[in-house]
Amino acid sequence: MTPKSIFSNLAKEPDGTWTTVYGPFVLKSALQPIFRRLGNGRLNIDSFEGLVRPYKADEAVSPAEFFPLVNPVDIEAIDSLLRTLHILNTGYLDRSKARIFVNFHPGLFRTPGKMRQEVERMRLAAHEAGMTPDRIVCEFSDKKAEDTQLIADFASHMHAIGFRVAIDDYGAGDSDIERVKLVKPDYVKFEASWVRDFMSNSAGAALLRVIVRQFMDDGIEPVFEALEENWQVELCGDLGVNLMQGYALARPELAPTTFDERFPELDEHGRIIYSGVDHVQQHLYRDVTPVESRILRPTRAFGKRKN
Questions:
Q1: Shortest CA distance to 226 belongs to which of 15, 34, 72?
Q2: Domain boundaries, the chain
């Protein structure tokens, strides 16, 4: 596999979704919603996070099992293929505004030429999916100090083109604060276990509220993920956190997902956005129950690698 073959392994399935192959594996997209709390309290799908789901002979394989089997010379191409896959499958959904968070590993693209090449791949995938660059969020999670400036340089380049940038696993340590200052992200996803610890007592919640307000004042949107209990979702409202992700709200689903039917797209006033005659007929008289009433039981996450 070479970078030039980036689209040659992609296949459009009969249901309209996209898959790709690597050796004996079929790679599919699972999408998990990130919900935004609107002014009237309703929750609307703001974005999705793309997660890889490998299959071998129709049997699911965990990402943790799959990635060690990837030939090191193919890692760069696989990284690109998965981003492309998630972008295409998000574009297939009947949503006009939802963004897609895709993991990015800048250490794989250390030269300006490789960075430009990868950016062009993403732009091509976004165009094919009918999505503008600002609906693509590049999520960086590498905390190695030697990569911080590299990430900052790459993030600046991405911003200049129109893509958005997120930092994952923020925990308020000195290295995390320095990353935020250098990278200047649009979003910060808080490290889940760190947030859970602080949510469990009033002093910790007060500190979280201060940090969230500081980010908001700087034009950075906090995202709390891995919310597994209804009380955590409710507390986010008290903390001023409007972007939330977790099994308490919705679990990942393989594309094409049921999210269009379960959570029709809403405008900023909480009204359903209609995209066509058929869609109007389907949802015109439908009573859309707020997502808070669809709480699911917490479930252990499937694998750790989040491509």
A1: 34
A2: 3-294
User: Given the structure tokens 């430009």, which residue do they identify?
Assistant: 116
Q: What are the strands, taking DSSP E only, across 149-259?
A: 164-170, 187-190, 221-224, 243-244, 253-254
Q: What is the 3-state secondary structure (H, E, C) of 119-153?
A: HHHHHHHHHHHCCCHHHEEEEECCCCHHHHHHHHH
Q: Is the Cβ–Cβ distance between 126 and 132 less than 8 Å?
A: yes
Q: How far is CA 267 from CA 102, 103, 282, in A?
A: 24, 27, 17
Between CA 58 and CA 11 the distance in angstroms is 16
Count of all residues that appear for the chain in the document: 307
Are the C-beta atoms of 238 and 71 separated by less than 8 Å? Answer: no
CA distance 228 to 295: 9
Q: How far is CA 158 from CA 2, 34, 139, 151, in A?
A: 23, 22, 11, 10
Instruction: List the pLDDT tens digit at each of the 307 positions of the chain.
Output: 444 454 588 999 999 999 999 999 999 999 999 999 998 889 999 999 999 999 999 999 999 999 999 999 999 889 999 999 999 999 999 899 999 999 988 778 777 788 888 888 899 999 999 999 999 999 987 666 557 777 888 888 889 989 999 999 898 677 788 889 889 999 999 999 999 899 988 999 999 999 999 999 999 999 999 999 999 999 999 999 999 999 999 999 999 999 999 999 998 888 888 654 343 333 332 233 333 333 333 333 323 345 6
Q: Would you call 105 exposed, middle or buried from its count of C-beta atoms within 10 A (0-12, 13-18, 19+)?
A: middle
> Architecture of domain 3-294 in CATH?
Alpha-Beta Barrel (3.20)
